[in-house]
Specification:
It is a single chain. This protein is an all-alpha fold. The protein has three helices and no strands. It has helices at about 1-50, 55-70, 70-95. The radius of gyration is 28 Å and the shape is flat.
Length: about 100
Amino acid sequence: MLAGGFTTYLLNSVAVTVAAVAVTVAASLLAAYVIVRFSSRFLFPLILTQSSDRAVLPLALTLYRGQFGIDVPAAMAAVVLARRQLIAGLTAGFSK
């Protein structure tokens, strides 16, 4: 009975170790794949092209979005600050 329990424990620990190694290898391969895809779509064209009118489509779209897009966190911060100023002004004028 003791050998059976030990065998089960040993097999379980080996399975967990193999699964951990498999997950680590899979994550490493996925990271390498993502880096290669990113560099081929954005990094190389960004380095090799001198002007935005000759950029490849994914790079051109990213540059366009960055140039004409809205910075949402900055806009939200401005709204919060404007709201605080508005409330402070209303409450200051109310007490007179």
